[in-house]
Amino acid sequence: MRQHWDESDVKIRPNKKGSRPRTKDRPAYKEATIGRIITVDRGRYTAVVDEGTAQERSVTAVRAKELRRSPIVAGDKVGLVGDISGKPDTLARLIRIEERTNLLRRSADDTDPVERVVVANADYLVIVVAAENPEPRTGFIDRSLVAAFDSGLKPILCITKTDLKHPQWLLDYYRNVDLTILLSKAADGRAPSEQGSEGLDVSLVEQLHTILDGSVSVLLGHSGVGKSTLVNALTGAERATGHVNAVTGRGRHTSSSALALQPRDSKAGTWIIDTPGIRSFGLAHVPVENLVAAFSDLAPGALDCPKGCTHSLTAPNCGLQAYVEAGQAGEAGAERLESLRKLLRVDEQEGDTEKELGNLEH
Ligand SMILES: Nc1nc2c(ncn2[C@@H]2O[C@H](COP(=O)(O)OP(=O)(O)OP(=O)(O)O)[C@@H](O)[C@H]2O)c(=O)[nH]1
Ligand SMILES: [Zn+2]
């Protein structure tokens, strides 16, 4: 059952000096407890406090009026006041967003300059694709790589379902790119199972578990690639901490906003943030230099571009073009440059019109 809260339930009683006008640093708020946001659902923020201690618990909070215009996302560290017991029917007040180490951003599409924040303070972006069913799309992966680069997250490409098909062409495409690629173990001819974690490769889970231990990772992937299977295997069937239950009271997260989960047997501070609402990254907010730099196999070529080069097919003396033609970006160079030009929107054909279908809470 969903409880109904009212912000007035959590108004903090004025302290003895309460009549004093609020100053910018609001001394009373120095007492705030720091929590980590694990999900946002219709204006309710779920934060974990006293992380890694016996008192670890999740607290539901609403944000203070002053923060009404500030996006707060999974991974954010926030200051909480009021009732932070985490007991049923209690509601804390979120009064501050702590400084972020980084922010994974996207725009709704490539023409919308308004950037939206997806996740804060993450270390890795794990891009999950299937070797087949559904067929992986390099356009999607390249976009995700740009978003990771622009936001300062380390990308990992995780390829599932290699038992169905060996993704050699994909490995070739990324051969010269600075990117960690993890594959599920190949080929015993299994068909994708209809339920459960059948077909999932244990070694892939173990590899991921090891790399991500102690870090905050964002998992990204289209429907059907095996992302839920992977998340379930990483977090264990029973989510011992019960944080998810705290979100909806039903043990299932119903909204499409990002949700942070703790992997089993991991160090304190290890979080995996699932992003069910995100199908792709609009990149309108990303500066051209970062688009180019994210293509680490091509980027050195741009050093020879004339100032203000558009890098289009017809751009005179484009260094990228010359670099690729000289074979310095390897066999996939031409294809990679074509992909970059799509993102730069300087390709001759219609650009990548992949539209955002995601829905994110703010
Ligand atoms: N053959 C094979 N099947 C797999 C593998 N990993 C997952 N599957 C199957 O692929 C199907 C889709 O997996 P899910 O984990 O539900 O995929 P998802 O990406 O979470 O998709 P949504 O739940 O739609 O978001 C399931 O039937 C899984 O059992 C794999 O490595 N090999
Ligand atoms: Zn150029």
UniProtKB/TrEMBL annotation:
Binding site for GTP: 160-163, 221-229
Binding site for Zn(2+): 305, 309, 311, 318
Enzyme Commission number(s) from the entry: 3.6.1.-
Basic and acidic residues: bias regions: 1-12
Pfam families for the chain: RsgA_GTPase (PF03193)
InterPro entries: P-loop_NTPase, Ribosome_biogen_GTPase_RsgA, RsgA_GTPase_dom
Occurrences of domain EngC GTPase (ranges): 120-279
Presence of the UniProt keyword DNA-binding in the record: no
Main location: cytoplasm
CC cofactor note: Binds 1 zinc ion per subunit.
Top enzyme class: hydrolase
Subcellular location: Cytoplasm
Residue ranges, annotated region (Disordered): 1-28
Keywords assigned: Cytoplasm, GTP-binding, Hydrolase, Metal-binding, Nucleotide-binding, Ribosome biogenesis, RNA-binding, rRNA-binding, Zinc
Cofactor(s), by name: Zn(2+)
Subunit structure: Monomer. Associates with 30S ribosomal subunit, binds 16S rRNA.
Function: One of several proteins that assist in the late maturation steps of the functional core of the 30S ribosomal subunit. Helps release RbfA from mature subunits. May play a role in the assembly of ribosomal proteins into the subunit. Circularly permuted GTPase that catalyzes slow GTP hydrolysis, GTPase activity is stimulated by the 30S ribosomal subunit.
Family: Belongs to the TRAFAC class YlqF/YawG GTPase family. RsgA subfamily.
Protein name, as recorded: Small ribosomal subunit biogenesis GTPase RsgA
Organism annotation: Rothia endophytica
Phylogenetic lineage: Bacteria, Bacillati, Actinomycetota, Actinomycetes, Micrococcales
Gene, per the UniProt record: rsgA
